[in-house]
Amino acid sequence: MSELDKSLHFVKEAMPFVPDVGIILGSGLGSLGEQIEIERELNYSEIPGFPRSTVEGHKGTLAFGHFGSKKVVAMRGRFHFYEGYGMDQVVAPVRIMALIGVKRLMVSNACGGVNPDFSIGDLMIISDHINLFPTNPLMGPNRDDWGPRFPDMSEAYSNEMIALAKEVAQEQGTKLQEGVYAGLTGPCLETPAEYKYVRIIGADAVGMSTVPEVIAARHMGMECFGMSVITDLGVEGKIVETTHDDVVRAANEASKKMVPLFRGMIERL
Length: 269
Fold this sequence. Notes:
alpha/beta, 5-stranded mixed barrel
């Protein structure tokens, strides 16, 4: 039995229901998890074969509960390529979500903005992404029962869910940005030249997650929605020394706007 099969078996036995929506919470966005009426919470350490989250600000649990009237499963902390995990491990939770019946995935992250029109604290709908990781979670033999060998990525992020986000944000009076997210390995933040590079190739923001998870989710037929919190700026003339504490602080502040937005969206899915 593979590590993923061990994890899947344990989660299936422990989960109280089949969730409607899967949520991945990034750095500093744990407060969204606090809004879930949790029915069952599994520590990553108790799930056989499951990786461990090593990043400060990531709680490290898989929570089943209700977000408004909808049943959800939330990763309260994700896994990153820079932690030393292989891509199979990074996307294993997404695979498990798909295999237990989750049809929609909502992903959040904290990232650097390279669009000069952005400000720290902005919420950015991810309209598309650029994969700058040195590998891809679909490398290797394909599992035909999971998805096709060459999955289409022309709509990596659901147009329907993007339209819903805009509708809910307008009702709530929340300003949203929209743009392309570039995924890099990290863990160091980008140099000024690297920020300039990702802007030149068409990105509006850059971070160290999300892209592998969305690729795996789309491979397995899940609809995806992604939202970034701009926690620092990689714009020429605005680049300052940034610590992880700065990132978490900015994300915590921005999550006050993101929580009601996600709640409003999930209610209507």
